Amino acid sequence: MKQLFLLIFTGIIFQFAQAQTSEKLDQEKLLQYYEAQQYHEAVQYLQSVYKDSTDVKKLKQLAYASLMSGRLSEAEKHYLNLYKQLPEDAGVLLALGTISANYGLNAKAKAYFLAVLNTDSTNFKAYKQLAKLENDLSSTEKMTYLLKANHLDTLDAEVCADLSMAYFRNNQFNKADEILKNALSADSANLLLLNAKMPISLTFKAYSEAIAIGKKILATQKVPSEQLLLQMAQSYRGLRDYKNAAVYLKQAIKEGISTKTASYYGLLGDTYENMNQNKEALEVYKRGLLFENNGSLYYNIALIYENKLNDKKNAISYYSQYLNSIKEPEKQKRHIAYIKNKIEELKR
Questions:
Q1: Could you tell me which residues come within 8 angstroms of residue 272 by beta carbon, excluding any fewer than 6 positions away?
Q2: pLDDT for 10
Q3: Distance between CA 118 and CA 268 in Å, rounded?
Q4: Lowest-pLDDT range of 36-40, 195-199, 283-287, 317-321
Q5: What was the pLDDT predicted at 152?
Q6: How confident is the model at residue 301 (pLDDT cuts 50, 70, 90)?
Q7: Calpha distance 167→149 (Å, rounded)
């Protein structure tokens, strides 16, 4: 969160008091607090020097230090006092919008950010924050704000990643890829950009590229995500490197016991079949039956018994279990008739 505040207030220049009275500020001491990110101590020091001041320069310092130290209620009080004196100041409006967003007051935050644009229609930070407030990922407003922010700063990783993913969701894969190029050239190790690039590489069947990206991301994770492990497995399967695909599918199963687990076992079993390791495939398919599944694993098991192990008895058993697992039989009458005929043939 502090990184977000630092981003928002990068352009703020601290103006130190010039008073020659008891309110004289030790500028070097305050700067040391900021450089060491000791914002709590900075607040305490400023409060010991400034007493109930309405001076703009002093309020800005108190407000900023309070915000950076996480004392949002104090920061809001100072920024509201500043707002009374500087109702069109972009820094003040951005700060109030950020504080409101942190409180979950999105409508109020949006009003502050829009107020920034009323006086400065090219304010990148306002567009970026407005895009973040739009929870509907497919909304026209979110896309508009992202496009305007990206136009103003083509290298901001967060905006580029969000815009790329928006294009990707709309199946505009070339645009999704294009928007990342400059940002990745400037920062090739940025995780936001790499995570946005990974599904694009898979879509374009650039499997070697996807694997290289995946390895960069994995190097930063103590516990790899289920999604990334599956993407790595899909990449290796795309290269017909089933041995490595199996390694990542096993990890995906281990890391992500979920409603998708049975489908992972299905992919792993199919991977073993492609390596002609039919007994291993059979064992994996059966493990998948322990989790929620759509019945296809029964069918895969039956096929192995019938076509690869010549075990008619077990083939009949698993074809029968597959038939019992079909949830909407009225929609699959032809397929059901086909399986029933197959069972009758195996009984002969």
A1: 242, 246, 278, 280, 281, 284
A2: 40
A3: 56
A4: 36-40
A5: 97
A6: very high
A7: 15
The structure tokens listed for 42 are 């900075």
Residue 214 to residue 114: CA distance in whole angstroms: 38
Residue 21 has pLDDT above 50, yes or no: no
CB 322 within 8 A of CB 302: yes
Tens digit of each residue's pLDDT (9 = 90 or more) over 210-228: 999 999 999 999 889 999 9
Q: Torsion angle, CA of 8/14/15/17, rounded to 10 degrees?
A: 120
Helix, strand, coil percentages (3-state) for the chain, rounded to 5, are: 75, 0, 25
The domain total for the chain is 1
Q: Is residue 216 part of a domain?
A: no
Cβ neighbours of residue 101 closer than 8 Å, sequence gap 6 or more: 109, 129, 132, 133
For residue 28, tell me if it sits in a domain: yes
Indicate whether this model's pTM tops 0.85.
Answer: no
Q: Which of 153-162, 205-214, 286-295 has the lowest mean pLDDT?
A: 286-295
Spacing of C-alpha 106 from chain mean position:
21
CA 129 → CA 76, 91, 152, distances in Å? Answer: 18, 13, 14
Contact 74, 105 (CB under 8 A): no
Residue 111 CB partners (closer than 8 Å, separation 6+)? 97
- Provide the CATH number for the domain around residue 8: 1.25.40
pLDDT recorded at residue 148:
98
Q: How many CB atoms lie within 10 A of CB 305?
A: 22
Which helix (H) or strand (E) is 173 found in, with range? helix 173-186
Say how far apart CA 232 and CA 259 lie, in whole Å.
19
> Tokens representing 203?
């879509």
Question: Mean pLDDT lowest for which of 9-13, 53-57, 207-211, 220-224?
Answer: 9-13
Rounded Cα–Cα distance for residues 157 and 162 (Å): 9
Structural domain harbouring 4? 1-86
Establish if 204 belongs to a structural domain: no
pLDDT of residue 260: 81
Residue 67 belongs to some domain of the structure: yes
Measured CA to CA in angstroms, residue 50 lies from 22, 23, 47, 79, 202 at distances of: 9, 6, 5, 16, 58
